[in-house]
């Protein structure tokens, strides 16, 4: 695996700065901000599949509409990444 360039590290710091970090900010808001700052990284498909299963269950039982919507968006992005990995396969 290649080491990130200084440009990539600077970009990562910039993206990190855009994601709310305060304790008063909910996990839902941090997740939504993270989704807005997507970047490609290598990951095993099994990790994505496990995340989908857990998030789908969380979405099914969630009473918070904003959190459920963020969870649904995350699940769709994970499924798209799994499908892309299968195509690249």
Can you put this structure into words, describing what you see?
Helix content is 72%, strand content 0%. It has 89 residues and is mainly α. It is flat. The two termini are 19 Å apart. The mean pLDDT is 76.
β content, as a range?
under 5%
Taken in chain order, the helices and strands follow as HHHH
Structural class: mainly alpha
- Uncertain runs are none
At a glance:
With 89 residues, the chain is mainly alpha-helical. The chain is 72% helix and 0% strand.
List keywords for this structure.
single chain; 89 residues; mainly alpha; 4 helices
Summarize the SSE layout with pairings.
Blueprint: H1 6-18, H2 27-36, H3 45-61, H4 65-88
Helix pairs in contact: 2-4, 3-4
């Amino acid at each position: 695996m290649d080491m990130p360039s200084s440009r990539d590290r600077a970009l990562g710091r910039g993206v990190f700065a855009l994601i709310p970090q305060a304790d008063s900010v909910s996990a839902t808001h941090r997740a939504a901000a993270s989704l807005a700052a997507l970047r490609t990284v290598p990951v095993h498909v099994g990790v994505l599949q496990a995340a989908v299963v857990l998030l789908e269950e969380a979405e099914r039982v969630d009473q918070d509409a904003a959190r459920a919507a963020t969870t649904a968006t995350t699940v769709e992005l994970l499924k798209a990444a799994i499908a892309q990995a299968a195509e690249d396969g």
